[in-house]
Amino acid sequence: MLEISKLSTKINDTKILKGINLSVKPGEIHAIMGPNGSGKSTLASVITGKDGHEVIDGNIKFLNEEIVGLSPEEIAHLGIFLSFQYPVEIPGVSLMTFMKACIDQRHEKLNMPAMPASEFIKKMKQACKSLNIDSNWLSRGVNNGFSGGEKKRNEIFQMLMLKPKLAILDETDSGLDVDALKIVSSGINMLRNKNNSFIIITHYERILNYVVPDFVHILSDGKIIHSGGADLAKKIETTGYSEIEK
Amino acid sequence: MKAIKQVDYLFDLLPGPKTENWKYTNIKKFLTKDVLLEKNEKADDVDGKKLKKNIISINSPYLILFENGLLNKKKSIVPSGVIIKKIESVKKENHSLHINPKGSGFSNKPKDSFLFKNGEKLDNLLKINNLCNTPTYVVEFEPGFVCDEYIKITSVFQSRRSRLNQQRILFMAHPKSNVKILEQNIDLSECSNFNNSVSEIICLQKSCLEHVIIDSAKQNSVSVKSFFVTQQEKSHSSFYNFSLAGKMSRNNYHVNLNEPQASTNLSGFSCIKNKSHIDNFINVIHSAPNCKSSQLFKNIYKEGSSGVFFGGIFVDKNSQKTKAFQQNNNILLSDSSSVNAIPKLEIFADDVECSHGCTIGQPDFDAVFYLQSRGLRKEDAISILNFAFLNETFKNLSSKELEGVVRNLVLKQLNLKNYS
User: ipTM value of the model?
Assistant: First the structure.
């Protein structure tokens, strides 16, 4: 599904990613862990087409299509979703209006018929129910006045609505209490199937107790220095990154 | 010859770049001298269809219609408790306004105004309005007057030849009255006029006034609107100024909180393009203790448009326990757009809470990326964020209906019709 080979990037003259290789197949969950400043969020931004990152070597293929150079919305339309570490507040634009616009533009771009209003509302209600979200959220401004935990839950809500093929979750677990973490994890597990993939970027093992990854990669100084199974996350929790970096 | 002499005199009175309060708006650049040659006349037949197209439609039967500064009684509908009188125009030899030192009890005869005795020094546009025998109307709201619906005050200007149109209104909100005004100035002329209107607003004890101006109609004219407001004890005023179009507009608000526990909120936005220029000049004077004021102005400039925000707060030495806040944020969307922001705080009392903040910048591209990552086009993402940026300035309007009207105007201006 996603093939990253020899990916190197820079911002201005500073090299950030230094030859990343990563292969994500349908149905797989990959966790990317690493110390602060190792390039985890940069990797997520580069995959999803954020301006300001210059790819100096390598490529990123999604469903066999080169996506380096595509705009963020084109990448989103192909089916990649990025859950943000710090979601943006949009006062005055209701979540319902926002989601409808996102889905409409995607359908338009993919030459699909517009989603009927009844189906859209049904999907919204289902997503609300599964994440234990009060339906009055739908008429509130997107993330406006939300707590940190509510914003993260809202990210998962949007993910369920947009049903991506590949979801990249950038520190979605940070700032969540145990109950919220369980709800968010159940949302991820709900979308999980043999056709969808996830990349979970995290500092901590705790979300991986609820969403068990197939692979764990350790990123350090812009390179993947170690890959392993779910046990690797547990090892890091006890030894820290410094042991692995040695 | 006399007329030409007067035109020269009036033109010389217009502020230039060396006039401190007009430093960043050169009004003479937008006007030709001959505009001043012809003055208020009865409006040529007003094009009803064109007017209807431009007028803000809200669910209120009340309308006070002015045509080229003259009241059209036939077409005006006022609620009971509102009295409109025409009074003697201000004479050339006495340039003062109509109010007495306390802001109460206007008179048919001009008197020196304690509050605005320096009004003409502040602004020559007031002097021009005073000089030209402008017909003056007093709109009084009786004690205890309450009306949940907005009274629309629509000023229509229409002429075949460019001219100087002046309007003068004195609003008097009597004690415990509760007034909501929606003001709109519409110039239907093909030619370029100079519309100079002056409003004095007096809020007596415990009165409450909401005054909204929406400039959304395309026009070729230059417009200057000046509000001189004085507030008595425990009165409250809210002023909203929303500018979406206009060749050159200047909005002057001089608000004096004259007695204890008076309060005022001034909010607004300019969301303009096509080389429009909007200058908002706000000056709040705290003349008594325990008064509150807040100013919130947000502006978006596109396609070579430009603007000015002057935010003045003056706290007199006896005005202890004052709370005064000011915020001005600006976004420039094109290289050819510009804004000059001038916060000016003069505080002579020591037990006060005052703050101000001002920013000028571009869209937050991290936020734009967030919206794009959900599948929205970049231009839509920027427009949605701009809408959210302006939202704060109109979300507190007392009427949900009017809030919806403003919201739709902004969405239209930002090419976001599908988001209404």
Answer: 0.93
